[in-house]
Write a structure and sequence with these properties.
The protein is α/β, with parallel strands linked by helices. Helix content is about 60%, strand content about 15%. It is built from 16 helices and ten strands. It has a five-stranded parallel β-sheet with strand order 2-3-1-4-5, sandwiched between helices. A five-stranded parallel β-sheet has the order 7-8-6-9-10, sandwiched between helices.
Length: about 400
Amino acid sequence: MLNIALFGPPGAGKGTQSDFLIKKYNLFYISTGNLLRKELAQNTKLGQQAKNIIEKGGLVSDEIIVQIIEKTIKSNSEVNGFLFDGFPRTYIQAYILEGLMIKLNSSLDSLISIEVSQEESVKRLLERGKTSGRSDDNEIVIKNRLKEYKDKTLPVLNFYKEKGNYIAVNGMQKIPKVTEDIEKIINDRLSKKLLNIVMFGHPGSGRGSLGKALAKKYHLEFIATGEMLDNEIKNNTEIGKQIKEIYDSGDLVPDEIVIPLIEKKLDNTKAKRGFIFKGFPRTLVQSYILDGLLKKHDSYIAKIFDIKVDTLELIRRLDQRSKTNARMPYDSSTERIVKRLQEHEDKTIPVIEKYKETHEVTQINGKPAFTEVLKNISKEIENSFKNLQ
């Protein structure tokens, strides 16, 4: 997901650049003024609360504004991200946005400030006033607006300068050059973002083979807990001996063993563009751990797939796999296969339900031929990330 805040004094050309960014990167435009007017027009609960405040001559509180923004973000999960215009407007709102992004497992990628001198702003707005018919496009009002912008915005800009995601653009240039500079900033940011995908599905759904194929296709790092554990057994390490005993008992390997292996992989890998996780997270606890591990790398889960295959087909596939070199430890008997499928129902389905509250979980029919399923998942990925080559 790409989240950008666009700043600039009146007359800087934010409207023109916003139109470009929305279309180019499939972003949803968030203007607190527009959102508030929509809530008022639809007479929603939040709109009614805001109306009562406005009718008494007050300013709509940050508490109401942030609820409106959160509702808007959650109800527009099909976009690639959000473009914030006019928010955060104050130092306090900057902290509010940070907290909201954390809650939504996301972050503000960049604050782009279109820099224009006061003299140029006044000149542009006076020119606009000759054709716009707006009563506020006069020199006295314009200078007051510019002073208010400077007084309120400077602390916000400093907030993001300290965080390291403030980027200034010379707005005195021609419009196409400003657009070009902004596009370079965003493309550079996108090139550094990790595309992290989680593959869910019952054992036998094909998530491992699909994950490997997707990793190769999109230059991602494939992380499968099963393979990491098998390598420990193969290398006859002390951890590997513990894992073998656990496997032989038919139980799941505890987090105390799994997590250090995943953390080591994340820390040491030279990931090209991101990771595909298969077999992790498998429990609710692991889902919180993964969020923490990715946050440590200034990243998050970008896409989640749940591959659906009916139970009889799963058992048939696992039984067939048990007769090949690709068999897993739990493939050794029908009893163990059923036990493993039941563990998925008991422990992993709740994880998927949890993610549905904070992410878009895309269900994929895993019963067709491998090539068709791969094609369908690839289409979903490319629709979500237009910049992916």
